[in-house]
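Case study.
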Amino acid sequence: MLSLLSLRARIEAGTLTPAQAIVRTRDAIAEHEPSVRAFVATDATPQVSDTGPLAGIAVGIKDIIDTAHLPTQMGSSIYAGWQPRADAPIVARLKRLGAVPLAKTTTTAFAFVDPTETRNPRAPGRTPGGSSAGSAAAVAAGMLPLALGTQTGGSVIRPAAFCGVVGVKPSFRLLPTVGVKCFSWTLDTLGLFAASAADAAHALALIAGRPEIDGTGPIPRIGLLVPEYCEAAEPDALQALDRARVMAEAAGGDIRDFALPDEFRHAFDAHATIQDFESAQALAWEYETHRDSLPPLLRGHLDTARTIEAATYDAARRVAHHARRSLRDILRDSDLDILLTVSAPGRAPEGYASTGDSRFNRLWTLMGVPCVTIPVPGEGAPLGVQIIARFGDDARALSAAKFLEKAFAKQS
Amino acid sequence: MLSLLSLRARIEAGTLTPAQAIVRTRDAIAEHEPSVRAFVATDATPQVSDTGPLAGIAVGIKDIIDTAHLPTQMGSSIYAGWQPRADAPIVARLKRLGAVPLAKTTTTAFAFVDPTETRNPRAPGRTPGGSSAGSAAAVAAGMLPLALGTQTGGSVIRPAAFCGVVGVKPSFRLLPTVGVKCFSWTLDTLGLFAASAADAAHALALIAGRPEIDGTGPIPRIGLLVPEYCEAAEPDALQALDRARVMAEAAGGDIRDFALPDEFRHAFDAHATIQDFESAQALAWEYETHRDSLPPLLRGHLDTARTIEAATYDAARRVAHHARRSLRDILRDSDLDILLTVSAPGRAPEGYASTGDSRFNRLWTLMGVPCVTIPVPGEGAPLGVQIIARFGDDARALSAAKFLEKAFAKQS
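After joint prediction, the assembly is written out as follows.
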């Protein structure tokens, strides 16, 4: 994979120019894209800045994020050739840091669950996950050092885990979702894909303008969470979590078992109600005027979603509000720095009919707390573990991810 | 003015068709628009639905709200001729209810404070206010029975008060801001302008899909708030508030004095920090690529806004979060149904150099609570009083507004 920090180190040492770094990225794309199919549009004549802390870094932009220089097609024929006027603020920010928004990456239609054409470079014959399929696959294939995704259910953490890369879903609204096609305004969260936790922390600190996110924390106190608020994970995923525990303990990590109260089963259910009610509104124009052009899973979803009553939605919002406060209190009283749990139910499912299951991500998206997935070393298709921190404590989530990444590298 | 309920009553009685109602509206526009200048685009061949509870109702759409059939120009040359692909969900919803989104109304550039060309039909020589200038003026001039605006500081309540119409800023996110140009994602709130509180309640209940908003509540228990958290209002505004108190008491209203704790001075200050920090991000592309095309007040604002540190913003968000909880607890413990206060510092300022001052609106926008302004009968340029209810209690805000509207009509 292409390491953002390695590229930047060479650029800062003067052994690589930003322009050369972009050429190298484009060469990697030319080599791997025919088999991976991660991109829907690429800038043939990118403007490469010589300055800025991300100069020379090519970034993939999920194709529901507005770009002024490339079409934004939402993974849907309804937006075929659609050219926004403005860059989304996240894209303007990347440019300001010197990065090059080089390509638009595939997304499931409107970031729901109808699969894309993208292949998983690390697990032949298996889905790359979704909805941020192209961003995860592009980083996994070594075509890009950094890519943007969004998560409403599990659309960053799940494809990152399936493709064996690092994925970060920051605290809700740490990064602005302005100019990003909305599915659910209470849930939609911008996130990053990178080759390592250190890369991701460096990029997120710069993009968010919060240097503390790239800091080094103390050895984290970890709560090991085997989720019981929904259907259990597969043995593969639970074994990876246990390997992660053993390696973290060997590196000096303080690990205790942690369980969520039953209240969080209701919060888990509330996610679907909130997402579905809001998606029916967010995509009202598309549904009312282009229903037949929607892909089948999304069309069926909206057929049902639009029947949810406002009172049901309001009740779900109250459940979510209460659960957010409970989680905050529980974590504060626990003296834990992070929770460690599975990133997905198992390895990427075989075939391309499904993008996999987001059930171990939805609750955390609803809670708005920062989540990071990092790969767990092992044979076969990738598996990840998920680090969860308190709302607003993205710095601790990332420093814990870096600690675990180092621990895994030493022990494996 | 054009009353939505009167038009609907005639349509339901069969004495007016929806198409005739739209013709009547268009005639009113032809008569008044040359002097008011409330519109930037009008649909010359509107599709008029024969069915739906808002059939025959022409609606003005503030020109930062996306429409698939009319350009959306943000009050700025940067978006001259810009044609969005989709309707914002709020526009799709209006169409689904049978309403006709007939025209785009003037907005200050990106809904900030650089004045528009719109004139105040009820106060010659005075600003109509802003940023939703065209929507307020169009309803005031009797050109439309309903119009959409947005409020980040005081952009619905202030122009409604200045133009002598009813304005509603509902609870935060009661109406989806998807497809609405963002200034501050924590604050931007969709609202309505109408000829009466009864009209506004009827429309909001339908648009939000919450029939209880059009209900009749008991006689409200009212807390009279003479604001002390910022610079005092002018004598005219305070006298109007006192007249409102007297008329409400004569109608049987239970009115007590109410004061906010000092904490809310900090919350008042937090509004500016949050708005400014977010606006610098939301308008990053416009600032980075078209700074010279921005109008002078917005350009100067963004020059300063972009220097705010993330830590300052985070501190302001914590202040706001705490104040929202305090307000909830205070209102719960008070046994009050609503607060009654001034809508603006005074009458619309003379001249067109300023859109007026939002200082009696910003705190409530930050609190996310429903606000309604209704005109207080009297001589000269219009004055309004503002009704404030608890978060999510839009029904009580509107039923209290209807009570006061009746009380004012009886007593004046």
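Observations recorded in class. The first strand of chain B starts at residue 39 and ends at 42. Chain B has 13 helices and eleven strands. We will return to this complex in the next lecture.
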